Amino acid sequence: MTERELFEAIGHVDDDLILAADAPVKKRRRVVHLHWRQVVSVAACACIVLGGAAVWRSGALRKSSIASEAAMAADVPEAAAETAPAPDMPMLDAAAPQAADADEGAAVEKDSAASGIALGLAQCVQIDGVLYFDTGSAVDCPPDRGADGVIETSVDRDAFPETDGCSNFGTGYSYWVTEDGVAIVEMDGAYWEFMAN
């Protein structure tokens, strides 16, 4: 191409094309930001709606449970409510069938909430590094051999024994350990079965 041909080719170019080529390039990021803003706003609205529904539902459930408890309380006659056993009685009987206290046979208070908490832990004894827990089952026939040992130390009723020959229900009780992971403990003339855990 000669100089003359080049000059004629440039002369035929529109002025608009020359100005457009001279202008800086525009970036198209605005569309991408607008897209993410829409997604974020939709997600925020969904969170607000779901959170409101959860709060409304928990409030409705709470109101219905309070209403049902009130209705049940209204149905129970006052005389029956006074003679009904305390709620911790079944747990107390299962946890301590012999109901003997570690301090010289003092009576256990079965009707107080504090006694239910204190007796929430089952009676247990540690023998040879193994904890044996009271099953609540009495054994009809005692072992036909001498005792393997005597419980010599005791911890609080709501604690686990940490040494061998220690219990959380008192001292002075003879015990036998069988080969099948059972300990028999003699308490006040009765033989109780304790299982290894």
TrEMBL record:
Taxonomic placement: Bacteria, Bacillati, Bacillota, Clostridia, Eubacteriales
Top-level taxon: Bacteria
Chain intervals with Low complexity compositional bias: 78-100
Residue intervals passing through the bilayer: 36-56
Keywords tagged on the record: Membrane, Transmembrane, Transmembrane helix
Chain intervals for the UniProt region annotation (Disordered): 78-107
Name this protein carries in UniProt: Uncharacterized protein
